[in-house]
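Researcher: Good morning. I'm working through a list of sequences from a screen, and I'd like to move beyond sequence-only analysis. For each chain I'm collecting a predicted structure so we can compare shapes side by side. This is the next one on the list. No need for commentary yet; just the structure.
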Amino acid sequence: MSMVTPGAGSLRRVMVNLGSVLRLSWQEDWRLVTGRGVLRALSAGIPAAQAYIGKLLFDALSAGYGSGDRQVWRTAIGYLVLEGLLLAARTALQSAGRLVDANLNHLLRFGIMRRIMAHAARLDLSSYEDPQLHERLQRVSDETPWRVQGVLGAIFNAAGEAVALLAVLVVIARLGGWYVGLLFATTIPAILIGLREGGMVYTWQKAWGKWYRYVDYFRHVVLLPQFVMELRLFRLAPHFIERFWNSARTFMRAYFWFEVRRQQLFAIKTLLPDVGYLCGVGALLRGVVQGAVTVGDAVMFIGAFKTAQGSLGTIAEATGEVYESSLFITDLQALLQLSPRLVAPSRARVLRREEPLTVEFKHVWFRYAADTPDVLRDISVTLRPGQRVALIGENGAGKTTLIKLLLRFYDPSAGQILINGTDVRAIDLASYYANIGMIFQEPMRHEARVREQIGYGDLAALDDMASIRHAAQLGGADAFIDKLPGGFEAHLGMWELEEHTQKLSGGQWQRLALARAMMPRASLIILDEPTSSLDPRGEQRFFGQLLRGIEGESARPMVVFISHRFSTVRQADTILLLDEGRIRAEGSHEELIRSDAGYAELFEAQARWYR
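Model: Good morning. Structure tokens for this chain:
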């Protein structure tokens, strides 16, 4: 496995990332950042002051040894009191620093995650279908928040220890410059080793992080309630548990040998400064015996040299941590530099709320990538306000892709989609989406109260109970909502975030999704096989409720739906039969039965199942 080692380019990148971390932290709360820096700086000078006071104390005791001089006693007590005050100040500063750290760490953790979530929410749908970008997004969301905390903490630690180091170097230099040289000669290699270790950690985690998530998958499959029935029926649990354990053992073996390499570096990194300390103490003892160095100087050296080594050791660890975490922060910077491609121009057309929509596809072609075949081929069709349009065709015919283009989750590879005569690319998306109600094949089951489950269809009306009740009636959800304990205040979901969380059936969840789609008073309602899990009679009731509900609206919306059941399809004004990405036939049910043999054959094949 190749190792990441620091070079000139790497160090430049580290400096850039350090600036990014400081800027992000400052933006989250500059007062906490400033306060932490001040507290760390004040704490940093205390060890040097303690070492010097220790020297003065032992020199005074040595000078007055056996004399019985009360002045010596008073002087020693005075130095001892100063030592006590320094200890008290150190404790107070450390406690204040921990308090600030606790608040700052939580702020950074959740603040950085908020930034990642907000940026990810802006990216195009295609970004989530890119495996490499999805992997990066997972790595960034897993690692970056606490890595930013670590880098900021390392910066403060390194800066504080640098101040402490400068102070004790002044003390050590009083004994001779070679002691300072010895200190750096045995500690600088530890810093370089720390950098190499940081590169090792990044390389290993990048290589094995995906594997760890693969291991974690089996844990979720066995423990999550939505999988339990299938696991029991097919007796899969022992198989998945075995795969979990085999995968975990592979992971643990790899981690063991990784730790062997780390601990080898750790041993070298730790022993080098110890050798330097022993050499320095040996030279100092000789000086004491020869009378060239006082006992106080010896005590001062021991305290100062250990403090300096501790400071350099902390700087080495902080440098390694900064370098290691900086590599992960590079991923964050790369993610934050991504921009959505599907954006409207600055002077985009803003649609009015409840504005009737006319949709025109003009020679639309689409492929998901340059090296993949076309999914839609020369689609031309006009959909008018109030029209009921059914999309039918075999799997892979392009039905859902057409819906994605209509929602502008993608742009056509060629051709245009016009909304009221304006290219959809020139329309303000927020105003466009405000006119659309949508039910997906697998609608979201939120962890929320019933009124919120419905109100999420129009956040502007989230607290408008009159609109929520009306939408519930249109979606046919009001009947079962009234029977729930708490009614519209009942909490729903699988995670049971609140006590007495209610459970719903699949059909009830679909009713809620339909009610949510009714919230915007939409000009366009889109249904992408929302009833695929219902039986034919259940689907017919579902669509019947929907169509009856919107008939009473002042402005009848356009309804575009995908369904494989002709009992539903025949309720459409216009049916579009897609075949291999093209519109093979267009018309009402009766027209297509007469004019298109393929449609008639499909209808007859399905009808035979119900005879």
